[in-house]
């Protein structure tokens, strides 16, 4: 007795489509959050940014990169975040999500530990600088034509932004830039560094 044919298998989603979905979801989520914060909470969610060394603010490490001080702040981060998130997700959705988690936790944790006191740090620029470093690090560790080419493109597009890791405008969190960048390098090292191959048994 022949079994009835099952439902046709869905073709696997291309890496480009998956990367586009992740980038669009992240960007849309940030805009949705800012709309809700502005019109439903009157901007009060910005209090969930990081206040360095405040014990009550430690949990804000997880929320701060997704908050913005108004639509102008969010608009300034939107294009670089969308482009870099798309490029990072092309390296693999799972590793991209792990890299994002590392950037948020490690970068934000360092801001909480070492950032300027009496200030609130928030904004997706921590992710932007983390993704820049992540893609540069992937190029360094993998050294494949694709990885190196992508790292070179990142340098061309956003290399000038790297000055943002230095102290400058007191209204800008250079600490989030710097520690997000360092966390991105760590993510590349942990997720893409080649491990030595065991020697074949003689």
Automatic annotation (TrEMBL):
Protein name: Rhomboid family intramembrane serine protease
Family, per entry: Belongs to the peptidase S54 family.
Principal location listed in the UniProt entry: membrane
Keyword Lipid metabolism: no
Single GO MF annotation: peptidase activity
Superkingdom of origin organism: Bacteria
UniProt keyword annotation of Membrane present: yes
Annotated compartments: Membrane
EC number(s) per entry: 3.4.21.105
Transmembrane regions: 66-89, 96-115, 121-141, 148-166, 172-192
